[in-house]
Amino acid sequence: PPVTTFSSSQVQNTTINTLTFNCTDNNSGCKYLNYNIDSNVWIQVANTGTKDINYSGAGSHSIQYFSTDNSDNNETVKTSTFTTYGTGHFTFRDENTYALVSTDYNVNPSINGVSSGTGTTLDLNLQGITNQTYTFTFSKTGYGTRYYYTDLNEFSSFDYNQLMLQDTNGNNEIELTIYTYTG
To answer: Is the dihedral of CA 113, 117, 122, 124 positive or negative?
Structure first.
């Protein structure tokens, strides 16, 4: 029977994991790859050597697989695991025009007080993040500082537009006044 090896790698800044199967057979050659993920339905695809399959779905997964050669010999079923981690993506837009903020002065994001570079977007790989509240702070010259609070875990996935309000009075922070309800 053929022999199949398995490996996986996450596509950066996505929740897609590329599953790679390498089949070798010294006799009649590899014909099919058979697999199922999380004990779901078996899928059969042509595979004469290396087969990449993209899987999207955050979390830990089990995979069963075996190959069939051109003489219809089946490999023993193998079992492996892989984990697809979550991602985060922020896009910074002008609150009045909804256009991307100017790249002349990039947004300065920080996560829980730690700088995360500069840019008009922020991509995060959430591998290793534990359950807790995260504070994202976004500041830009000429705009008010914005804050975003969320509970994350390593399997979260989000894609947000963060609106930046232009600062017209020279302050660095957005001021908010709350009035009592008068009915």
So the answer is: negative
